[in-house]
Amino acid sequence: MSKYLYALAGRDKHILSLRIVIVALVVLLIFIVWGWKSAPDKLTIHIPPDLRSGSTRVWWDIDPSSIYAFSFYVFQQLNSWPKDGEIDYKRNIEAYSPYLTPQCEQVLLAEYSQRKNLGELKGRVRTMGEILGRGINSTYQDYVTKRTEPRVIVLSKDAWIVTFDLYVDEYFSGESIKRALVRYPLSVVRSDTNPELNPWGLKLNCYASKPLKLVMGEGNDK
After folding, report:
1. CATH number of residue 157's parent domain
2. Does residue 32 belong to any structural domain of this protein?
3. Strand (E) positions, 173-218?
4. Residue 130 contacts residue 169 (beta carbons within 8 Å)
């Protein structure tokens, strides 16, 4: 009789252990399904343009050349007024709002209103481009501290400062009224909030510091 009871007890313990294993497997399966469902459907991989020497990257790393290309393209488009700055500038801000942080969009709209009230937009045509030899592969020299800095400064894996040396031309009724050489330090941040409207996963956060007017001389800027 005792052997029979012992066998029944052993069977019950084995059944209990199997039930525990089944529960553990169900919990693990639920966790796996949740992880699979919560994983992103798409990942944006930023590939550096020069692959002659190969490239090994983690998926979230963004090459400085991509940061430079994105910020230059958006900033240039914002400042492209082909017909009338009073119409074109505001339209550009609205069209490129997915590529701007909310704070930056408000800064640009405030700048638009101020320039409009001062009569600096109506009828003006503006073009902007990179000063020859001042691209991503060059460095810039701070004329005060004499420090040499790269065009793209990495603050963290989610923030950068990009510096452009650009020329700005403005026209009114076909006549040139402005020619300026300006250094623009721009803040760029990572933002993957809306890949449908912003496939870059980056946003301009406006100026990192005050733009600096350049005087091109022989050798250094003054």
Report:
1. 3.10.450.230
2. no
3. 175-190, 202-207, 212-213
4. no
Range 116-154 burial, b when 16+ CB lie within 10 A, else e:
eeeeebeebbbebeebeebebeeebeeeeeeeeebbbee
Half-sphere exposure of 221 (CA within 13 A, CB side): 21
Its domain, for residue 132, covers 64-213
pLDDT in tens, the chain (222 residues): 566 666 666 676 777 788 888 888 888 888 888 777 766 666 566 666 555 545 555 556 788 888 999 999 999 999 999 999 999 999 999 999 999 999 999 999 999 999 999 999 999 999 999 998 888 888 887 766 667 889 999 999 899 999 999 999 999 998 999 999 999 999 999 987 787 889 888 999 999 999 999 886 533 444
Q: Are 126 and 92 in contact (CB under 8 A)?
A: no
CA distance 138 to 119: 36
**Total domains in the fold of the chain:** 1
